[in-house]
Amino acid sequence: YPVENIRNFSIIAHVDHGKSTLADRLLEITGTISKTARNKQVLDKLQVERERGITVKAQSASLFYSHEGVNYLLNLIDTPGHVDFSYEVSRSLSACQGVVLVVDANEGIQAQTVANFYLAFEAQLAIIPVINKIDLKHADPERVEKQIEKVFDIPTDECVRISAKQGTNVEKVLQKIIEKIPPPQCNTADPLKALVFDSTFDHYRGVIANIALFGGEIQKGHKIVSAHTKKRYEVNEVGILTPNEQPTLKLYAGQVGYVIAGMKEVTEAQVGDTLFLYKQPVEPLPGFKSAKPMVFAGMYPVDQTEYNNLKSALEKLTLNDSSVTIHRDSSLALGAGWRLGFLGLLHMEVFNQRLEQEYNMSVILTAPTVPYKAILSSAKLIKEHGKAEITIINPAQFPDKISVSEYLEPTVLGTIVTPQEYIGKIIVLCQDRRAVQKDILYIDEHRVMLKYLFPLNEIVLDFYDALKSLSSGYASFDYEDAGYQAADLIKMDILLNGNPVEELATITHSDKAYATGKLLCERLKDAIPRQLFEIAIQAAIGKRIIARETLKAYRKNVVAKCYGGDITRRMKLLKRQAEGKKLMRKIGNVEVPRDAFIRVLKRE
Ligand code: GDP
Ligand code: MG
């Protein structure tokens, strides 16, 4: 395949607008997978993706397509839509020259449509707008075309109307890809220059690096060097993804594929690295901006003897998800562990679920916190840190007010797209979250796009759920980093019978302390089962108690009375209780279910 017959593209869209379904049809039409009724989101390979019905990992597939007598090689990358995984999208785009922007014919432009459009636009990629789900009864492609014209300045006649589900007009999308997306600009005669844009760890074969070739060629036996580590490797296997790994003799400039080269350590195949031939060094590609974590949480093994296993699982999983940052951390109550940075709460949950499902690890997670900052005024502390401005990613390290001249909190610029009838309620919600309105734009007669500057901690936990519920699911939300602002912050502890619950220590805005404290106590009361004694649940700022709930003791004879007669039933119950205990954490004398903390933090 000469370079001019290659097209590299991503499919981008808001969640649920049909990216993965369109990818299925493209795989079928090109004969990459056989047509069966069961092809559903075949590129969503992870268990967590199948269970949640969302894409969290970008996936590549090479398609072969013949058009007007010419054979084309198309490399498709299906991407996630949710804001928490936008790092996957931006990385994928670096291996592409164009995108297919999918918009639902019924829902129209949504917040993540806008965000993903700008990622492609800023990367100067060719953009093919596609209006999907025209088979739906309430589809209104004309209206959506007008929105696309208004918001993105793309003429209405450039849109392709399709039904990914039924296959209508999908062939037209392929033709547009060939016409509109330029082939990659590179040369096989140049020295090898390969960008590692993703990698996974295979238990048997070591690191499998997904690469995009910007120059030269690569084949088995080649000696290659990593620009990042300067280490040398011998290539064992190269190939393309169809979408499973299929070995080929060579990969050429312009192609997207994978390489296995005996990298055994997960640290050896950094995403963003450039590979070149031994003794033929090239200028490394710019790589990727590192992801900027939005929330941090502590992670600890349930049992300290599992520490090393968890460490190795974390290393392998973060290779596949390079947007997670890791620092070692420890706590009196929880032992040795880590502080992890995530792009959002969904990201944190998905990462945790992948640890459980793919590595069989279960962990204790602490309350997520956003990265606050403090400008220190105490000479002693400044000397200790070697600087005056520090970032606080752990509430345990929150410096006292007397040694601080100013606290700062991170902010984001949020985009909300909503039918106009919900504007009133949404404005009230945003004000309640200390947000400041920045812009308002009618994208058609009925839909509005609002821009607000939010303190990040006000949206991280449950803003999206609140927005969804007050708009009956119709409003969508996305955000981007917008720097820091001064804030009046305090640290709040949660106590059980006087003992602090380390998992729930939080930093909060002082205006919100009472409300937050009260809420956490109430929710914790619901999440902890009654025990043999009364439990005081308190929120405290320093020594001052600001909220309290009391969990009454249960009467212990109930179980004995009901099941006393039936010995097997009784044994079964005791066994189940013993298993349940493993999932408990003891704070003082109080037993707390391990998942209680997450439930408390996530309003249900
Ligand atoms: P993604 O989140 O963008 O990858 O979206 P999916 O491909 O997972 O699709 C989301 C939902 O929309 C699934 O239930 C699909 O079956 C459905 N869907 C996708 N394309 C169409 C279409 O053309 N018509 C209809 N009626 N439903 C579709
Ligand atoms: Mg998907």
From TrEMBL:
Membrane topology: Peripheral membrane protein
Main location: mitochondrion
Catalytic activity: GTP + H2O = GDP + phosphate + H(+)
One Gene Ontology term, aspect cellular component: mitochondrial inner membrane
Spans through the membrane: none
GO terms, biological process: positive regulation of translation; translation
Keywords (A to Z) from UniProt: GTP-binding, Hydrolase, Membrane, Mitochondrion, Mitochondrion inner membrane, Nucleotide-binding, Protein biosynthesis
Record-listed GTP binding positions: 13-20, 78-82, 132-135
Keyword Protein biosynthesis: yes
Domain Tr-type G, chain residue ranges per copy: 4-185
MF annotations from Gene Ontology: GTP binding; GTPase activity; mitochondrial ribosome binding
Keyword Protein biosynthesis: yes
Localization, UniProt: Mitochondrion inner membrane
Function: Promotes mitochondrial protein synthesis. May act as a fidelity factor of the translation reaction, by catalyzing a one-codon backward translocation of tRNAs on improperly translocated ribosomes. Binds to mitochondrial ribosomes in a GTP-dependent manner.
Family, similarity comment: Belongs to the TRAFAC class translation factor GTPase superfamily. Classic translation factor GTPase family. LepA subfamily. Belongs to the GTP-binding elongation factor family. LepA subfamily.
Protein name: Tr-type G domain-containing protein
Organism: Melopsittacus undulatus (Budgerigar)
Residues of the full protein shown: 125 to 728 of 731
